[in-house]
Amino acid sequence: MKKKTPEFSRSLILRALKQSLVMLNPLGLIKNPVMFIVEVGSVLTAGFTVWELASHTGAVFFTGFISFWLWATIIFANFSEALAELQGKAQAESLRATRAETMARLVVGDDIRTVRGSSLKKWDVFVLSAGETVPTDGEIVEGVASIDESAITGESAPVIREAGGDRSGVTGGTRILAGDIKVAVTSNPGETFLDRMIGLVEGAKRKKSPNEIALSILLIGLTLIFLVVVVTLPAFSSYAKTPVSPTVLIALLVCLIPTTIAGLLPAIGIAGIDRAFGANVIAKSGKAVEVAGDIDLLLLDKTGTITFGNRQAVQLLPAAGLSQETLAQATRLASLHDTTPEGKSALALAEGMLPTLPKVEEIAPVPFSPDTRMSGADTPEGAFRKGSDDAIESFIGRPLPQDVRHAVTGIGQSGGTPLIVVRDKEVLGVIHLKDVIKPGLQERFARLRKMGVETVMVTGDNPLTAQAIAREAGLDDFFAQAKPEDKMALIKKEQDKGRLVAMSGDGTNDAPSLAQADVALAMNSGTQAAKEAGNMVDLDSDPTKIIEVVEIGKQLLITRGALTTFSVANDVAKYFAILPAIFVVSFPSLEVLNVMKLATPETAVTSAIIFNALIIPALIPLALKGVAYRPIGASALLRRNLLIYGLGGIIVPFVGIKLIDMILVFMLTHVR
Amino acid sequence: MTAQDWIQIVLVAFLIGGAAPFVGHYLAWVFESPRIAPERLIHRLIGTDPDKGMDWREYAGALLLSNGIFFAAGFVLLWAQRILPLNPRHLSAMSPEVTFNTAASFVTNTNWQAYVGESQLSNFSQMVPITFLMFVGANTGMAALIAIIRGFVRSGTQSLGNYWDDFFRFFVRAFLPACVVMATVLVWQGVPQTLATSVVAHPLEGGTQTLILGPVASIEAVKNLGTNGGGFYNANAAHPFENPTPFTNTLELLGMLTFTASLPFLFGRLSRRPRQGWALFAAIMILFGLGFGAIEISEKAKNPLFASAGIAQATTPFLDGGNTEGKEMRLGITQTSLFSNTTIAATTGAVDAAMDSMNPLALMVAFSHMWLNEEPGGKGVGFAGLLKEVVLAIFIAGLMVGRTPEFLGKKLEAREVKLAALSLIVTPFLVLLLTALGVTASFGTSSMDNPGPHGFEEVLYAYSSGNANNGSAMAGLNAATPFYADSIGIEMLLSRYLPMLPLLALAGALIRKRIHPDTAGTLPTDTPLFVGLLVGFMLLVGLLTFFPALMLGPILEQLSMMHGVSF
Amino acid sequence: MKSLTTSLRATLLLLLITGFAYPLAVDAVGQLIFPHQANGSLILKNGVVIGSSLIGQPFSQPRYFHPRPSATPDPTGSGSVPYDASFSSASNLAPSNGAEIKAVQSFAQAYRRENGLPPTEPVPVDAVTASGSGLDPDISLANALLQVGRVSKARALDPSTVKKLVMEHAEGPQWGLLGARHVNVLGLNLALDAMKP
């Protein structure tokens, strides 16, 4: 379930249409001053129409037609916003549907009571066993469980969640496959992330993001300018002894003020959040998505983000005078009952090297102990152990042989981890464990670099190892031997340089850094503290998802800029349609300005206003989908978008208005 | 276009492009090096601590207060002309509204003249209040610009600098010395400089001719170097005493650009981004060059309405043909076009030909320059206005690269956009509303000297010029009426300070912002693409605002003339 | 309060520097080094100032070359007094103004009449348009050459002599670079008088 894009079903469109009529309420519309002015114009022209009908004066048909299209302009704009809202709601509801009412077993003192899931409050503790559905968001306080999160993430592989660690979060609607856990509720009813998300798109809690506010101010400025242009036109035209009807003036005003972008602006913002949601990321605010587009620096944890969480054995290096087979045999025995991923991969590597795999019967596994920092097995053939070089040295009580020490150093320098294998204190050789870098990361980092985002890996490894991994993964930089508090310091240092920092994290010790970072993507699997500190939560718990969020943020800004440019550029053609129409009767020499050769002054004005209205629904798909982001460098991107939306914005209306004029002429001649 | 025309054009272009970087870098030194002795002396005399930084409010406050006092001093001295010395002709004071208009006009660097210099002002008035206001008006603009630039390039402080420090640095080390040098050269070429008022000559055919003299050269120098524009004589730089030779014509037009065209390079230096300076210079010069080309074509063209009278209008070796109405033969069309384009573009307003008799296409250029007012615009404020356009252009275009727009590493957010937009809307509001009043009320239309669209243009021009702090006029319009003197006087004050305050506030907002390092995702603002974008944005937004006015004015007039219609 | 006194003191200081020191310094330099120019480039004949080489004069007698039309107004406000140097002014007529077209037509007719030109003869544009200052001392070479016939007849001179004089008085471009070719009318007429009073 990667993308949950509901189709533009008929019912959705009908609901949006109904909603857009409700939104005609001027009290709501006044928040969008540009559209409010259109509404004032619509009311006025409607009034003119009625008056002309009653008094049998003026061009009733013309006035009425203009009024109709002015109303249509507002409804189209409302429709775009309603559609974006409903789309988001539909996504949210499809999720909410998965959360059918479940019963929860609430812990009350020593008792356990069965209550409705929806009645659970923050800090309540309930228990869960295999087969049960998690009733609400919470954090495991006791136990470990394997959970099927596919209802939320679409990912079918089960995940392990356990108390105490960084993977203690459970989400309502997921299902326990195995294990018994005790869970503390982390949010009150109606305040889960899902609820917040739904609230966000429903607009109840939607605040305009900073950039949206700035753009709105610019649009108001432009509107004021065009208002004064139109207000002064009657004075100019009276000097030129050419009266202009109020209907035409209103039509001109509506054509000039940036209705296209003003109409689509709310939809663009909502659609950005929708898109983040489509990528299974819940943004806590529109601002968070917007800021993601500005990120300069992305901090990535090595483990789990850049590399798979575990290392793999890739090579066996026998000590001097020993055969590969001897070492493989020893490795096999030392790892036979090792259940760690490293152990399993060492076993697999060793077994692949042996011609036969004799059955081992008398074996006593020695699990990893924090004291010796070794694991292995005792067999009739001897006591096999494996561990890090210093652990082994203290075990055998002397330094490693020269050749083995050499191999250990070599592995370390290449970014790998050496594991020494001994039999009864005799050093047999070294297992080369290597971090395995997730596939496809190099391309993603290259893409980020082109966006201007620098990638920095944070790891507790030594600098040599870190450098090797960073180079292999294609990262720009690394920060080695990092302690959790170092990450915070690093973020602050970069922010002091004026840079915006993004990171993803899941652990409680990540929480301060997440709070400090400008964009913080918390893993849904993470602790409650991390989720609270971040400004986005990824339901898939994929740390690299932040890259997609960056692109969504950029797309959001590009869409706004592109449609603003388009909207303003449109004005050129509208001037050429309307102004000659007004004055050509008095001054025939102005006919050359009628470059579109529009049939009559009335069809010219009407065509312009129809184009102005129709361009809004025509651009709704673009506003909702967003203008595609291409990591081709800022200049190339600008050139491309300027060409499409700037130059296109100048040319398209010339064509569109001419076409509408031709259709109007056709209709007028055939109707009469 | 003859070879002679091309030689002059190329020469002037070369001189502009060659001098601007040097002057810009010199100015950077003026503002960044330690104060020199005369400056220290001045600060001791006036009792200021030039090291005390001012935030934008303090800076704006000092600027407004000083300008208020400059204005008052100028008004009082003009008003008292009758009793002051150097007035052998016993000229009385001008009417209160024209005196107000003049003081407002000169303190705002507009230098709109509702009076006739040679017949209404004594030599004392020309020499003291007028020259004084010319200096301080221009100097104020420069100080404001420096403060505004600091907002863009500095960080981690609230201080935009010290107003008086900036004021006197420019005055002592650049403005005053340049004026002395230029005035001397002008005298050499024939511009009078004397305390004598007039000489009565006895022409060959009898009668008398009263030649008005005075401290012309000293005014002429500051008039151009300060992009002031107020001429000693009514005909301004068309008068042979103000502009005796083609060389003075060239010198004066270069004088207008000396400081204004160098400002991008000053900006490049102060921002430590020399390429940015070149880019802004390029944007200015594209608009400047386009304007010149259109004026040259317009004024070289034949008037179709003259055809029936049998007039030789074509250029031959014996005749520099074209629209010679209102032009001087020693200068010729090309020098006049170069000068006209410069004086309007640099908001000097000192015309060397009658704007009212220009062809409509040339007037269209003049209107566009005055509305944009940034190519390069007046001393300081023109470039500050350009920075406002940069902010707005980047805001829209910057979004299209998918980042919060930023300029020189500073993010442009709601507050910056609000202040820039506030500064932007002043022009359309003042020009359009006042023009609407002027062309409808009888007290407005009765001042018109020409009928039809040209009369409309006269009123539009007056308010465009007042708004742009330009000062040139389509002089047929009788602006000495109470209505025009008062309305233009108020307009000049509003249009000077209303856009300047938001820009100082913008600087105050920007200076607090962190400078964010450039990345591959940052929109570069020093590339040809950006220059094209900026020019396109300015033309689109500027011309969209005024398209109806242009259509009912110059466009209608031009098309009518092409159809053989006169008014 | 402090800033008010600062502003007042600065105003006083600036008035002294810009209103007195600066213009008087330029005055001193001008009167010392370029006294002729600084005092208006006056032309004296027998100790009497007959005009300035920079300022046009009215000429209407046939024996003189005529300057361009002048739009300098009468300072008393009634009609116009050509080449009134105390009130420089242009006509300020628009190229689209019917009055301008009429003026050009009547100037052209008068010009042809004065100079005995056929009605088809194109009249140089500078001869029918007023200058920017109303004090333009110059006319075009084409304009001067069309007047040669009239002047030589009035002075009983050989037209080729007068034509030669005109060509000798052709000025510009300055230093071969700047401005347009023109003839200074006063200078030319003085030369005529000098040649044959």
Helicity range of chain A:
40-55%
Helix content of chain C: 40-55%
Averaged pLDDT of chain C, please? 92
How would you name the oligomeric state of the polypeptide chains in this document? heterotrimer
Regions of chain A with pLDDT < 50 over 5+ consecutive residues? 1-6
Helix/strand/pairing category of chain A: alpha+beta
Low-confidence stretches of chain C: none
Strand element count of chain A? 21
Mean pLDDT of chain A: 85
The gross shape of chain C turns out to be globular
What Rg of chain C do the Cα atoms give?
A: 22 Å
Distance between the termini of chain C: 73 Å
Computed Rg of chain A: 34 Å
Q: Biggest interface, which chains? A: B-C, 132 and 110 residues
Major sheet details of chain C: 3 strands, antiparallel
* Strand content range of chain C: 5-15%
The secondary-structure element order of chain C is HHEEHEEHHEEH
Topology:
The complex is a heterotrimer of chains A (672), B (567) and C (197).
Chain A: H1 10-22, H2 26-29, H3 33-55, H4 60-97, E1 103-108, E2 111-116, E3 125-128, E4 138-148, H5 150-153, E5 159-162, E6 169-170, E7 175-178, E8 181-185, H6 193-202, H7 210-239, H8 246-256, H9 259-278, E9 281-283, H10 286-292, E10 297-301, E11 307-318, H11 324-335, H12 341-353, E12 364-369, E13 374-379, E14 382-387, H13 389-396, H14 402-413, E15 417-423, E16 426-437, H15 441-451, E17 454-458, H16 463-473, E18 477-479, H17 484-496, E19 501-505, H18 511-516, E20 519-523, H19 528-533, E21 536-538, H20 545-583, H21 601-625, H22 634-671
Parallel strand pairs in A: 10-17, 10-19, 17-18, 19-20, 20-21
Antiparallel strand pairs in A: 1-2, 1-3, 3-8, 4-5, 4-6, 4-7, 4-8, 9-21, 11-16, 12-13, 13-14, 14-15, 15-16
Chain B: H1 3-32, H2 37-46, H3 56-79, H4 96-107, H5 117-120, H6 123-153, H7 163-189, E1 198-201, E2 209-212, H8 216-225, H9 246-260, H10 263-270, H11 274-300, E3 311-312, H12 332-345, H13 360-372, H14 381-399, E4 406-407, E5 410-411, H15 414-440, H16 442-445, H17 452-467, H18 482-511, H19 528-562
Antiparallel strand pairs in B: 1-2, 4-5
Helix pairs in contact in B: 1-9, 1-10, 2-7, 3-4, 3-6, 3-18, 4-18, 6-7, 6-8, 6-18, 7-8, 7-9, 8-9, 9-12, 10-11, 11-12, 11-13, 11-19, 12-13, 13-17, 13-19, 14-15, 14-19, 15-17, 15-18, 17-18, 17-19
Chain C: H1 2-33, H2 35-38, E1 42-45, E2 48-52, H3 98-115, E3 123-124, E4 138-139, H4 141-155, H5 159-168, E5 170-171, E6 182-184, H6 185-195
Antiparallel strand pairs in C: 1-2, 4-6, 5-6
